[in-house]
Amino acid sequence: METDKPILLSGIKPTGAPHIGNYFGALRQFVEFQTIGTHQCYFMIADYHALNSVQNAGHMRELTRELVLTFLAIGLNPDKVVIFKQSDVPAHTELAWIFDTITTMPYLMRAHAYKDAEAKKHEISVGVFNYPMLMAADILLYNAARVPVGQDQKQHIEYARDTAEKFNRIYGDTFVVPEEYIVPDVAVVPGIDGQKMSKSYQNTIPLFASRSEIEELVMAIVTDSSGDRPENVYQIHRLLKSEHDLTPLYEEHKGKYKALKEALIEDLDAFIKPMRERYAEFAANTTVVAETLEKGAAAAQERAKEKIEEVRRAVGVA
Ligand code: ADP
Ligand code: TRP
Question: Whose CA is nearest to atom 16 of ligand 1?
């Protein structure tokens, strides 16, 4: 699969059921890049990152399996892209350590995720504090030039960029400086409460939701009665239909939130149904997850090995 195309890499943590925010913000772009074929693509299950919040072995295995099935169900093809698990490539944690040694505490203390956790008076593990360095390692280990993500990950990519530049300054030109790829229109998909949709806020519409779940969740979307248009309903609806189609519908049902929610239920179900069916097909296959990860691990390990050897030589431990 090795080619001279530029590298693209992204990752998702196995921390819960993937939702439509993940899909429109990130996953859909993964499939598009696979289709256009401009890059050599790596899509990673960030299980070491997930350990910061998932601390039960059985649960971790199940969430990891669900994420592989998700990648397959949305259309990623292991013959065309590398689908792999972070923990299958030990060089990620090794490189994160090397980055730790050139990174200061005040710099990491400026990270949004750390500041938010501190503001909420959460107990912060060293893993959470150090999150941006492991993520920088994920990206830089593969010479990734492009990283498709949602808006909330922008700062993390800046950390990866800064780290590449700092390392290159100290040890000589070693890393490609990556760029984020964020689609402005879908950068932040709102949840059913109007905040950013997130697994951590219990406000998601799962990507493979059943019809009855969709009905329940859409009916629970918070509507504010001040405007003509139920904004939280519209912001989700516009992911599925063009403004051209939605404007007359929202005009016709002005003030009738129930009718608009019913229309959204139909559109969401039509959109989710084929993916839900593909998910069930892959889930019934008892070998596909292990085969996908085995194949991906071999490809990722091969590329990472070359890079980590270069880094070891650059810092003088080899
Ligand atoms: P969550 O916040 O639900 O835990 P993750 O951190 O696993 O989601 O995010 C996986 C990918 O999905 C990232 O690229 C992230 O930027 C994107 N993403 C997550 N939530 C949203 C959202 N509400 N809108 C757009 N993109 C999102
Ligand atoms: N931090 C990302 C998130 O929360 C997941 C992630 C881990 C990632 N490593 C990555 C994304 C490398 C892009 C590239 O969604």
Answer: 150
* Verdict on whether the full-model pTM lies above 0.85: yes
Same structural domain, 263 and 132:
no
**Strand ranges of the sheet holding 179-181, from the earlier edge strand across to the other edge:** 82-85, 40-45, 7-12, 146-148, 179-181
Q: Are 22 and 138 in a shared domain?
A: yes
The finding on whether 11 has its CB within 6 A of some atom of ligand 2 is yes
What is the domain range of residue 36?
7-186+287-315
252/234 Cα distance (integer angstroms): 14
pLDDT for 225 equals 66
* pLDDT single digits (tens) 252-302: 998 889 999 999 999 999 999 999 999 999 999 999 999 999 999 999 999
Q: Are residues 176 and 264 in the same domain?
A: no
194: in domain: no
Measure 10 CA to ligand 2 centroid, in angstroms. 6
Token pair for residue 293?
A: 């990860």
**Contact between residue 299 and residue 1 where contact means Cβ atoms under 8 Å apart:** yes
Look at the alpha carbons of 141, 145, 151, 157 in this order and tell me if their dihedral is positive or negative.
positive
Q: Domain of 106: which CATH number?
A: 3.40.50.620
| Probe target for ligand 1 pocket from 51, 152, 236, with the most ligand atoms within 8 Å of CB | 152
pLDDT digits (tens, 9 = 90+) for 18-58: 999 999 999 999 999 999 999 999 999 999 999 999 999 99
